[in-house]
């Protein structure tokens, strides 16, 4: 599957949920920015 990335956005990663539907994301560069916004997409 190809993920569409809107202008001005950067794809961080493609994560796959575990058997319970839980997804984990670690943004190791988050401290370098005053705020961050994340978008989750599920087909």
Task: Summarize the structure in words.
The chain contains no helices and no strands. With 43 residues, it is mostly loops.
Summarize the entry for a quick read:
The chain has 43 residues and is mostly loops. Helix content is 0%, strand content 0%.
What brief labels describe this structure?
little secondary structure; 43 residues; single chain; flat
Give the assembly state of these chains: single chain
Strand content: under 5%
Largest sheet: none
Rounded average pLDDT: 80
- Report Rg: 12 Å
Principal-axis shape equals flat
Structural class: little secondary structure
Q: Give the end-to-end Cα distance, rounded to a whole number of Å.
A: 10 Å
How many DSSP helices?
0
Task: Give the topology, please.
Layout: no helix or strand
């Amino acid at each position: 599957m190809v993920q569409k990335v809107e202008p001005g956005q950067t794809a961080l990663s493609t994560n796959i949920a575990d058997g319970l539907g839980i997804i984990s994301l670690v943004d190791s560069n988050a401290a370098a920015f005053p705020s961050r916004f994340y978008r989750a997409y599920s087909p």
